[in-house]
Amino acid sequence: MIRRTIGALDERLGAASPLKRTLRYVFPDHWTFMLGEIAMYCFAILVITGIFLTFWYVPSDAKLHYAGSYVPLQGTSMSESFASVMHISFDVPAGLLIRQTHHWAADVFIVAIVLHLVRILLTGAYRKPRELNYWLGVTMLGLAILEGFLGYSLVDDLLSGMGLAIAYAVAMSIPFVGGQFAFLVWNGEFPGTSSFLPRLEILHVFLIPMAIATLLALHLAQVVRQHHTQFPEEGSERVVRGTPAWPGYALRSVGLFLVVAGVLFLLGGLVQINPIWEWGPYAPYLSTNGAQPDWYVGWLIGALRLMPPLEIVIGGYTVVPSPFWGGALFPGIVFGALYAWPALARRFHLDDRRKHNLLDRPRDNPRRTAVVVAFLVWVFTVFAAGATDRFYFRSFISYEGQVWFFRAFALLVPLLVYFVTKRVCEELRAREEHPLRSWNGSLIERNQARGFEKIVDRSDQSN
Amino acid sequence: MTPGGLFSRVVAALGGLSGLRRRRYDRQAELHQVSDPAGKKSDAVRASDEETRRREFVPPPELDETPDPRAELVVALLLIAASVAFVGFVVFYVVSEDTQLLGLCIGLGLVLAGVASALAGKRVVIQEKLTDEYKDYGDREEQIQVEDHLVEGKVGVTRRKLLFSSLAAVGAALGAAAVMPIASLGPRVGEKVYETPWSAGKKVVDETGKPITVETLSAGEFITGFPAGASKDDIGSPLVIVRLETDELELPADRAESAPGGYVAYSKICTHAGCAISLFRYPTFDETQPGPALVCPCHYSTFNPADGGKVLFGPAGRPLPQLPLRVGSGGVLEAAGGFYEPIGPSYGGIREAPGEQPL
């Protein structure tokens, strides 16, 4: 049976040789190499669950009176869009499971991408010859964040609307062109006309997913062409060593896919996320306190909250409205820094210009690791500032006090983190200790002959 | 047949793993070919202090064919448990449609099947370590050939400059023509973006359409107001109306008449990011607490309702636009004019917008 299929394919397509190479393709082993895989599998789950959701979702702002089976909202005036998501949640069998799994998958997707990026930055995997793939990855991260934001904006519940109001204000705030740009996107003044939701939908269900899928294919093709990087324990700059695609790696990778899918469905079934029936439909005059977006938008909320009320006005013309700083400039700087990173690292002699197939451990390049960690601490401090109101309700530390604290923290702590990280890396490198399994001495005991005996000797082990 | 043997057959049948344990030939020699490092000058490998620990030595390929019958048994049990969970999904789908039970069944089934697959990959099938070469791309000769082929395109072309200029012209013109339809996506931004339905004499109603009168609020209370008969979804419509003690008011002199009976009205749309101002802070012990404030829950821009909506804290760059009120017939609140300032989030022209003429 197998022989006949292979024979048939090979005679027609010459498939045997590429198949042979595919089956023997070598994957280096390290647990951190799974992060990108997890992201890819989340994307697969997003596509599968998303297709299911498109069969019911209606991108329409036409008003109707809810008549579904959720009693507290019956008779409430709402958009067809919100009503269709209520229908998915309450009246489509397994609809709520699929919807919540889709939402969880989006959150985990971006967690996995960010961790993957952190691994790439800390180990120098972006260096020549892999800069192109690094840029593809950063682009996919940006697209994934946009895609997630559009996804929860489609629902037209209270949180969607508040998020879109902010997005509109940020779009308006872009110097000189912002007003016109926002009018083109929303087809006029916020909250937009009936053509706005269909635009969001086609972006969310087709254009951006297709862009991500295309970039993902290129990303993988480039990995195949260049081979995956690896740590020096296994291979060398010229030789990659690892598990062949078949049978070992394929089975493990399929296993990872199934576990990722399983965990997402467990979350989707057991852990409530975005209960839109509690928020209710949106109208521009409505808002709620304690509104928090999905986590991957939190850094923008934090930046918008931390910025002082600064608007640059020249001769009556508002050159820079205040939402620009946190909503557009801050993410612009973060993504600009990410795109420019391979060049910046070379320019400031954190990296050399040679080709690298071997990864560094973070400690191997203390200055680069310190810069990367300081940068991440900066971004995540701003992210944490997005939750200041929640801290306020838990702790009753005054909101204003927290904002001032975070402003100072975001400016000073990354510097401190830089020096601490650099020092830690240098010491680890000097001692060759693993930070989590640090002890590598030997244990000795006096024996009966009044001598000493080594019981445990780990002094010659690194890591 | 032992149960273990039976189960390995089940594994083979369920997982499509048949034949995995049979190795046909030894590939090690064939795959461990590394090109001669001395013969090929690669800039990827050059000795440096940092790379002293990076051996040129690569451990040889490994092949471990030791059977592990216990792992086979566990894999089979996991797959059977997964099947039970998937059947459970089908059953619960038919009988109850309960989201938790459905999620538990499908999720558990997938996790069990996944663990089975990963375990099979680690313990049941042969464990191999292979090596392959990293390709060191970059062949100067081929690059030159490509360049030559490309350059061939201009061989025999005499009026090169003219042709290239025309080409650039057509490219730019086509580009311009191609982006024009983007302008169809929405209207032009006019001089005044945010039109509001408010003008002198417009009655103020609440969310249900009932008129708001001087009796509606006591000091320290607030309510959302709309212009009678206008759309509530227009961002120019909603007001946040608070009633303060008249001696709390610190309004500028030209707005002295805008707050009858301590009623002050502001646009409900935050001038920072356009969220609805839905929080009102009102001190109950004036000795210790800060004064009254209107607060936006999105980024906590804080405005002073006693002082014409001045920004007290937070990222808003403009005060909250105030709408002058007056008392109409029957004690009903009505607008005494348009907003003192343009409403809504800032954009380039917001301060150029010709203000409406209040009072």
Structure, explained:
- The complex is a heterodimer of chains A (463) and B (359).
- Chain A is mostly helical and 463 residues long.
- Helices cover 62% and strands 7% of the residues of chain A.
- Chain A folds into 2 domains: 304 residues, Cytochrome Bc1 Complex, Chain C (Up-down Bundle); 28 residues, no CATH class.
- In chain A, helix 5 crosses helix 10 and helix 7 packs antiparallel against helix 8.
- In chain A, 45% of the residues are buried.
- Among the domains of chain B are: 91 residues, no CATH class; 132 residues, Rieske Iron-sulfur Protein.
- Helices cover 28% and strands 14% of the residues of chain B.
- In chain B, the strands form 4 sheets. In chain B, strands 3-4-5-6-11 form a 5-stranded antiparallel beta sheet, with no helix packed on it. In chain B, strands 7-8-9-10 form a 4-stranded antiparallel beta sheet, with no helix packed on it. Chain B has a two-stranded antiparallel ribbon with strand order 1-2.
- In chain B, a hairpin with a 6-residue loop joins strand 8 and strand 9.
- At the A-B interface, helix 5, helix 7, helix 8, strand 4 and helix 10 of A face helix 4 and strand 2 of B.
- Strand 4 of chain A pairs antiparallel with strand 2 of chain B.
Blueprint of the fold:
The complex is a heterodimer of chains A (463) and B (359).
Chain A: H1 2-13, H2 16-23, E1 26-27, H3 34-54, E2 63-65, E3 77-79, H4 80-90, H5 95-123, H6 131-154, H7 158-172, H8 178-186, H9 196-226, E4 239-244, H10 245-270, H11 276-279, H12 298-306, E5 312-314, E6 317-320, H13 323-347, H14 366-385, H15 388-395, H16 399-431, E7 442-446, E8 452-457
Antiparallel strand pairs in A: 1-4, 2-3, 5-6, 7-8
Chain B: H1 3-15, H2 28-31, E1 62-64, H3 69-95, H4 99-124, E2 127-133, H5 140-151, H6 160-179, E3 204-205, E4 222-227, E5 239-243, E6 263-267, E7 279-281, E8 293-295, E9 302-304, E10 310-313, E11 322-323, E12 325-327, E13 333-335
Antiparallel strand pairs in B: 1-2, 3-4, 4-5, 5-6, 6-11, 7-8, 8-9, 9-10, 12-13
